[in-house]
Amino acid sequence: MKVTVFGIGYVGLVQAAILAEVGHNVICVDVDEGKVERLKQGQIPIYEPGLEPLVKENHAAGRLNFTTNAIEGVNHGEVQFIAVGTPPDEDGSADLKYVLAVASTIAQHMDRHQIVVDKSTVPVGTGDKVQAQIAKILAERGRSDLTFNVVSNPEFLKEGSAVADCMKPDRIVIGTDSQHAEEVMRELYAPFNRNHEKIIVMDVRSAELTKYAANCMLATKISFMNEMANLAEILGADIEAVRHGIGSDPRIGYHFIYPGVGYGGSCFPKDVQALIRTADHINFDAKVLKAVEARNNEQKTTLFAKINKHFNGNLKGKTFALWGLSFKPNTDDMREAPSRVLMEALWEAGAKVQAYDPEAMHETQRIYGNREDILLCGTKESALKHADALVIVTEWQAFRAPDFDVIKELLSEATIFDGRNMYDPKRMQKRGFTYYSVGRSS
Ligand code: UDX
């Protein structure tokens, strides 16, 4: 099938690449000329395992193309995906200007039936707005004879495993009340709908809410566990034991109940906030979501609080080795990363940071530039030199079994603040470290 994808961000590029991989013919449209040119030359704007070969091979095979020409895009696809960003506006609501701009572009140039599919995460009711926008412009063009369907098809990919998530989805949610659109979407996704039925068809509004409900549920699990961890610390319990104890109940499950330094990334913080705002706009008090958000904001400050307490509030002139800058492993994404809240608090208190991350060094440099109080280190060991303590913020595999003797030798003081419970407290004690972690009192 011929497909057009508007917006070559994370979601759009991965979606386009996997559709091309199974044989569809895909054109990606973006307003950023530089990005389009670089993609044509095989330069991928994001770090995502497996994405680069997929883009290069399918581009070389002629099934995946990139353009800034919106008219070419509209003419190409039988299905037009909208995968542009929905950044939070001033009050945290999702800003729909890019989504509606693409809808307008499609309406201005279409001259046959079109299926317009919303892949961006958009508030409930956006499908109706897209529908109205397209109908308005078609009427202005005197082309109200042209028919179209608006479909909601939310994306559930995780950064770091985006290609795998999309190639083997758990579910494919399709929001539409049109039989025709449902059939076309089923055909488009048939290559991914193997082994068992994964397509779940529902109305547009339910599909839109499904995306938010999924992310907010996951965020709730994390904030709940962080709350339990904070309680465990005070009560003298071990959250890791508690995690096992509750995860063994299949109704709770082991996934997504790891306490830590708070959730970050481009989705959870934004989506929880956007759903709170959606609720506010209809005078509904989303009490649970507000608590989830508040707990998370506070959780991002807990590592700093532990460091500050350990050094009796005297952090001026201290140097901290920081391992892990990205909001989670296997990505270079620093959006809403807990490392940023920590670093900014350390700098505010007059401390310096020697930071290392396997992928996010460029991103850190881009965000913070050349500050005097941050040293970007080429290896995890060089970050340790003469530092007063090691702070672990992101649980990269490369940090799981470090040489503890080297750590001890390089640090001025054998102290570790671990925001991800990477190590066993008893072993750390035996190795001679002062070891702080999350939800474990020892
Ligand atoms: C998330 C959803 O998982 C995905 O389905 C959706 O489409 C987009 O948002 P992503 O933001 O890539 O994906 O990251 P994810 O792996 O879900 O992690 C989100 C955050 O939660 C990270 O900061 C992570 O460290 C944190 N987290 C996750 C925990 O603190 N504890 C856990 O148990 C799990």
UniProtKB/TrEMBL annotation:
Provenance organism: Cellvibrio japonicus (strain Ueda107) (Pseudomonas fluorescens subsp. cellulosa)
Catalytic activity: UDP-alpha-D-glucose + 2 NAD(+) + H2O = UDP-alpha-D-glucuronate + 2 NADH + 3 H(+)
Entry's Gene Ontology molecular function annotations: NAD binding; UDP-glucose 6-dehydrogenase activity
Binding of NAD(+), residues: D30, K35, T86, T121, E159, K270, R335
GO BP field: polysaccharide biosynthetic process; UDP-glucuronate biosynthetic process
Alphabetically ordered keywords of this record: NAD, Oxidoreductase
Active site: C267
Protein name per its UniProtKB record: UDP-glucose 6-dehydrogenase
Alphabetical list of Pfam families matching this protein: UDPG_MGDP_dh, UDPG_MGDP_dh_C, UDPG_MGDP_dh_N
InterPro entries xrefs: 6-PGluconate_DH-like_C_sf, NAD(P)-bd_dom_sf, UDP-Glc/GDP-Man, UDP-Glc/GDP-Man_DH_C, UDP-Glc/GDP-Man_DH_C_sf, UDP-Glc/GDP-Man_DH_dimer, UDP-Glc/GDP-Man_DH_N, UDPglc_DH_bac
Binding, substrate: F156, L157, K158, E159, K211, F256, I257, Y258, P259, G260, G264, K328
Keyword Transmembrane helix assigned: no
The protein's annotated pathway: Nucleotide-sugar biosynthesis; UDP-alpha-D-glucuronate biosynthesis; UDP-alpha-D-glucuronate from UDP-alpha-D-glucose: step 1/1
UniProt EC number: 1.1.1.22
Entry-linked SUPFAM superfamilies: 6-phosphogluconate dehydrogenase C-terminal domain-like, NAD(P)-binding Rossmann-fold domains, UDP-glucose/GDP-mannose dehydrogenase C-terminal domain
Family: Belongs to the UDP-glucose/GDP-mannose dehydrogenase family.
Ranges of residues in domain UDP-glucose/GDP-mannose dehydrogenase C-terminal: 321-425
